C-alpha cells in the first residue's frame, strides 16, 4: 500500500466529487502508461500508484473508510494495495486506448456487424412535391439467408466455439500486470467456427435479394432533400441492426412554374389593350385550380402580383407559400393594314409623333440612382 496520501497522488482535494477524481485519474494514467513510457520504471510506478489511489477514492465505501480511519480503515475492507485486479472496472475510463484490455474480462467477442446503409434517388414532379406522393422503389439489398437464418451454418448444424480462443474472440498474452488482447485469427473475433457452412449463402449468412418498398414523399419536399428510412438498409449479421436507406429527392423542372423555397413564380403575357385597360385573368395553380387575378389598368411590363397561399406548404410548419405572377406586355407583330391605321390614329390622338421620338422621352436617372 502506497505510503503517500491518495488525494495528493491524484492532485484532488478531500471535497472533490467523483467526476473530478475520475478525470484526474484518467489524465495521470494516460500520462504515465507503460506503453507511452517503455522502459521507464518511474513512470510505471506512478501509473500503479495512480491506479491504487483511484481504486480507493473511486469506490464510495473504500473512500469513506479511508477518510475516517486512514490506511488502517482500508485493511478492514480487505484492500491490500495495488494488484492487477484493480483494472477490472477501468475500461470505461481508459477504454482500449492503448490496445490493452485490463483485468480478467473474458468473452470479448467482436460485435456483430451492423447492416450497410444504402442510397437511392427518386425523381418527382413539382405537383408531387406540392401534394406529396407514394412511390414504389426497387432495390437490391443483403438480407439474412432464408436457409440458415443468418447463422452461416448448414441447416441442422450449429456453429461451435472457436478452439483457438475458447469462444472469446480474442487471444490474450500477459505482459507484466496487464494483458495484451488481439483478435483471434482463427475465428476473426466472432468466437465461433463453422464446420459445415450453409450451402445457400456459402457461409456468409446473407444473400442479395430484390425488394420493392413503398416510400411516402411528404408535402413540401424540395430538390436535393434527403429522406432517411431507418432500418430499410441491408440486414446486419445475425442479431445486429439493419442499416438505413437514404432517398435523395430530385424535382423535375416545370413547364409553367419556377420555385423559390415555398413560393412559385409564373409569367403571363398581356396585350397592349389588356395592360392599358385592365383585365381579370384566370391563373392556373400548381394543383389544377384556377385563381382570379385582377390586373389593373395601366399595368407595366415586369410588374409582379401576388396570390397568397397558392405556393407550396412548408415541410415543417405546414404554412403555404405564395404564387407570384409577373406581367409581360407583348408588342404585337404582323399587323394588318387596319391595325396599323388604328395604332396611328391612337398615336395622333395621344399627340405623339408617329415617326419620331423626342429626346425628352429619355428617362433621366435621379442623383440617388446613378
Key attributes of the depicted protein:
370 residues, alpha+beta, Helix Hairpins, HSP40/DNAj peptide-binding domain, 3 domains, 4-stranded mixed beta sheet, 3-stranded antiparallel beta sheet, 9 helices, 16 strands, 25% strand, elongated
What's the quick description here?
With 370 residues, the chain is of the alpha+beta class.
Report on the structure:
About 6% of the residues have low confidence. By secondary structure, this protein is α+β, with helices and mostly antiparallel strands. It has a four-stranded mixed β-sheet. A three-stranded antiparallel β-sheet has the order 1-6-5, with no helix packed on it. A three-stranded mixed β-sheet has the order 2-10-9. 20% of the residues are buried. The protein is elongated, with a radius of gyration of 39 Å. The protein has three domains: 93 residues, DnaJ domain (Helix Hairpins, Orthogonal Bundle), CATH 1.10.287; 100 residues, HSP40/DNAj peptide-binding domain (Sandwich); 104 residues, HSP40/DNAj peptide-binding domain, CATH 2.60.260. Helix 2 packs antiparallel against helix 3. It has nine helices and 16 strands. Strand 11 and strand 12 form a beta hairpin.
Amino acid at each position: 500500500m502506497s505510503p503517500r496520501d491518495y488525494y495528493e497522488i491524484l492532485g484532488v482535494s478531500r471535497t472533490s466529487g467523483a467526476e473530478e477524481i475520475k478525470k484526474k485519474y484518467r489524465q495521470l494514467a494516460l500520462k504515465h502508461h507503460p506503453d507511452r513510457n517503455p522502459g521507464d520504471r518511474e513512470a510505471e510506478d506512478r501509473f500503479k500508484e495512480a491506479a491504487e489511489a483511484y481504486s480507493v477514492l473511486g469506490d464510495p465505501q473504500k473512500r469513506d473508510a479511508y477518510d475516517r480511519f486512514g490506511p488502517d480503515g482500508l485493511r478492514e475492507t480487505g484492500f491490500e494495495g495495488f494488484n492487477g485486479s484493480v483494472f477490472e472496472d477501468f475500461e470505461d475510463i481508459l477504454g482500449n486506448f492503448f490496445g490493452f484490455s485490463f483485468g480478467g474480462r473474458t468473452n470479448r467477442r467482436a460485435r456483430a456487424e451492423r447492416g450497410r446503409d444504402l442510397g437511392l434517388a427518386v425523381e418527382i414532379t413539382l405537383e408531387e412535391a406540392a401534394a406529396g406522393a407514394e412511390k414504389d422503389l426497387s432495390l437490391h439489398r443483403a438480407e439474412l439467408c432464408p436457409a440458415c437464418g443468418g447463422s452461416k451454418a448448414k441447416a441442422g448444424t450449429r456453429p461451435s466455439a472457436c478452439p483457438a480462443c475458447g469462444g472469446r474472440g480474442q487471444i490474450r498474452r500477459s505482459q507484466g500486470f496487464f494483458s495484451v488482447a488481439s483478435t483471434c485469427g482463427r475465428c476473426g473475433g466472432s468466437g465461433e467456427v463453422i464446420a459445415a457452412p450453409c450451402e445457400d449463402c456459402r457461409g456468409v449468412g446473407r444473400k442479395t435479394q430484390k425488394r420493392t418498398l413503398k416510400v411516402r414523399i411528404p408535402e413540401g419536399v424540395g430538390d436535393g432533400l434527403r429522406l432517411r428510412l431507418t432500418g430499410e438498409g441491408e440486414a446486419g449479421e445475425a442479431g445486429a441492426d439493419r442499416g438505413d436507406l437514404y432517398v435523395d429527392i430530385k424535382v423535375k423542372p416545370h413547364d409553367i412554374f419556377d420555385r423559390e423555397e415555398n413560393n412559385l413564380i409564373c409569367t403571363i403575357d398581356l396585350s397592349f389593350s389588356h395592360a392599358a385597360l385592365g383585365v381579370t385573368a384566370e391563373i392556373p395553380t400548381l394543383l389544377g385550380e384556377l385563381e382570379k387575378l385582377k390586373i389593373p389598368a395601366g399595368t407595366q411590363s415586369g410588374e409582379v402580383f401576388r396570390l397568397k397561399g397558392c405556393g407550396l406548404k412548408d415541410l415543417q410548419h405546414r404554412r403555404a407559400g405564395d404564387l407570384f405572377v409577373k406581367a409581360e406586355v407583348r408588342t404585337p407583330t404582323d399587323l394588318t393594314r387596319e391595325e396599323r391605321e388604328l395604332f396611328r390614329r391612337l398615336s395622333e390622338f395621344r399627340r405623339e409623333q408617329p415617326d419620331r421620338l423626342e429626346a425628352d422621352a429619355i428617362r433621366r436617372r435621379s442623383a440617388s440612382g446613378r
